[in-house]
Amino acid sequence: MGIIELNQLSKFYGKAKGIENVTLEVNEGEIFGFIGPNGAGKSTTIRTMMGLIFPTSGSAKIFDMDCSKEGPKIRQEVGYLPSEVFYYDKMKVLDLLKYTAGFYQKDCDARMYELAEIMELDLKKRIEDLSYGNKKKVGIVQGLLHSPKLIVLDEPTSGLDPLMQKKFFDIILEENKKGATVFFSSHILSEVQALCNRVAIIKDGVIIKVDDIKSMREDNYKKITLRGLQIDQEKYKLEGVTHIINGEDSFKFFYKGDINQITKQIGNDNLLDVLIEEPTLEEIFMHYYK
Amino acid sequence: MLNIFKYEFKMYQKSILVWSITFITVTILLMAFYPSFGSDVAMVDKLLENYPKELLQAFGMGGELSLATVLGYYAFVFAFLQLFIAIQAANYGFSIISVEERELTADYLMSKPVSRAEILLAKFGATFITLCISNGVIWISTLAALKLFNDGKAYNLSNILLLLSTIIIFQLFFLSIGMLVSVLMRKIRSVLSFSLALAFGTYILNSIRAIVGGKLLGYFSPFYHFNPATILAKGSINIALLTLSSFVIIASLTATYLLYVRRDIYSL
């Protein structure tokens, strides 16, 4: 039995497609990445899982229970951090966290204070006085204070500075070690690659690939830009080189394969500059998942 | 569920205070003028004779009771109170569900282990108790004002109590309509404009009915269902109209529940 089981899940907003026939299974103890460009259907999928919206057809199950029918029971063991966080402005942080803890049938106090300390959260401040990044920290603490069995994260890192992102990832990994399953939605490929065991890629509301992260790494494309006046382009017609774009004094291409082979070739050329970078997710989608 | 109820009720504290002051002020201030009206019965009646009967009825006067009597005067006071009661109840009705979506806190609340039915019940419960408190304030201020400013004239207390007992249905009417409209719409940006429109709309509807005559328009207005001048004069409530109000309340609340439990909560 998977912790999350989505079966032919579709959601249409009137005639507009949100997601269509999304089928995937997340196993216990996994950190599962859910990746796709903005507007691909990631939030629609998650909102259906959380019972915020109702599917047009198909089913979404968590802990083998239907998300639309048994939501409260499911959510007792789910921690959710949405991409945009909004809380009751007039409340103090501590009051909001205590209010949150009041929904769960367990004592959350110890973990609540522990998380607040790790995230360096000022519990006495009012929500309305917090910066966006601090509101996000409140989101993290309120989402995890009940030590959930499933953590659902929808673009969780936006608004967090790199130091806080690191702390946040450490917390997630720690929860995962304790047995929590993590469903991690993002449009940042490197973030998902660093954290997840398996990944589903969604585009235009349709799952186009579900793969383990090892295979994704093997599909590790590099975007290489060479600058120089006398580059012999013929020498780059190698296996794994695609999408060659010629500029006035530059030469760009995507490469997938043994990195030593391509750097050896680059080393033979008389170059002014070289840039080897990770393609953006949009570029990957544009070139490989048409 | 108790968690939400406590939070919601706490949020009402300021509102309870403001509305209590409003109801006490309106009741005491208006009733305080009664001794000067009641002391010269003939003059008041003669003065009002100059106005068209329909116009007086539209403002809760000119019924079977003279404005110079305690009951007749209180009917006029209560017509004002009804308008405020309607605004308060409609305000709550339009707000209790829509506030979570307008202020984008619905995601937070609904991702907690609580069902939509429980959320609705907790919010409705907190609002109902709040309205009951306002109701109590009106009862107490009315009875106190009548005692202080009756100008030594006798009045039928049981008719007053009967009129006061209609407040709860009147409140629930506006609360339930407000709730239903808020689940029918995707978003309510300005609660106050909606509640003023509903309260004044139904008030004006009843005023137009008084001018053009007939009953049809009155069926759509609780100001007609619970017309204070009629209730105080007859000492009874029109059962058919009471049933109509009750039916509207039950139907609105049922429809609100059915729509709310299946409502999609959209993100930004």
Notes on the protein architecture:
The complex is a heterodimer of chains A (290) and B (268). Chain A has helices at 42-49, 71-75, 93-101, 109-118, 132-144, 162-177, 189-195, 213-218, 259-268, 281-288; strands at 4-13, 16-26, 31-35, 57-62, 65-66, 78-81, 150-154, 181-186, 198-203, 206-212, 222-227, 241-246, 250-255, 273-277. The mean pLDDT of chain A is 88. In chain A, the strands form three sheets. Chain A has a six-stranded mixed beta sheet, sandwiched between helices. In chain A, strands 2-1-4-5 form a four-stranded antiparallel beta sheet, with helices on one face. Chain A is 32% helix and 29% strand. In chain A, β9 and β10 (206-212) form a beta hairpin. Chain B is mainly α. Chain B is built from 15 helices and no strands. Chain B has helices spanning 2-32, 34-38, 41-49, 53-58, 70-96, 98-102, 106-110, 116-148, 157-165, 167-184, 191-212, 216-219, 222-225, 228-234, 239-260. In chain B, α5 (70-96) packs antiparallel against α11 (191-212). The longest helix of chain B is centred in the middle third of the chain and has 33 residues, at 116-148. Chain B is elongated, with a radius of gyration of 20 Å. The model of chain B has no long low-confidence stretch (mean pLDDT 90). Chain A binds chain B through residues 43, 47, 50-54, 71-76, 78, 80, 82-89, 99-100, 102-104, 142, and chain B through 3, 7, 103-108, 110-115, 118, 262, 264-268. Chain B: Keywords: Membrane, Transmembrane, Transmembrane helix. Chain B: This is ABC transporter permease subunit. Chain B: The chain crosses the membrane at residues 16-37, 71-99, 120-140, 160-184, 196-217, 237-260. Chain B: It comes from Fusibacter bizertensis. Chain A: This is ABC transporter ATP-binding protein.
